[in-house]
Amino acid sequence: MAAAPKFKVYSSEGEYVAACKYVEEAAAIVAMRGEGWTIRAGHRYIVWHEGHEADEAGNSYDFVAETVWGRIKFITNL
User: Fold this and answer.
1) Angle between the 23-33 and 61-76 helix axes, to the nearest 10 degrees?
2) Torsional sign, CA 77, 10, 18, 28
3) Residue 24: what pLDDT?
4) CA–CA distance from 52 to each of 2, 18, 39, 48 (Å)?
5) Exposure string for 29-51, b = 16+ CB within 10 A, e = fewer
6) Model-level pTM?
7) Going by C-beta distance under 8 Å and a sequence separation of 6 or more, which residues neighbour residue 27?
8) Other beta carbons within 10 Å of 1
């Protein structure tokens, strides 16, 4: 049995919208939808908040992935 997708996408209103296996997929959704949308690791930890980051998700999915994985690493080391 496959594991549930790790990345959850939430709207700017806090509504759970999508689950993604890859952070780049979540970044594409956030880039399309815009400011205030978030990517979470599971349902708990916000690891990307569109409009509050150094760059926009649509400019580089790789940048989003690097940022998200760095934050997940930090969270797991707490």
Assistant:
1) 120
2) negative
3) 98
4) 33, 20, 12, 8
5) bbbebeeebbbbbeeebebbbbe
6) 0.93
7) 39, 48, 57, 61, 64, 65
8) 3
pLDDT in the model for residue 23: 98
DSSP symbol at 51: T
Write down the pLDDT at residue 76.
85
Query: What's the CA gap between 9 and 24, in Å, rounded?
Result: 12
User: How many angstroms separate the CA atoms of 16 and 36, rounded?
Assistant: 13
pLDDT surpasses 80 at 15: yes
- Judge contact between 16 and 38, C-beta under 8 A: no
Percent of the chain exceeding pLDDT 70 equals 99
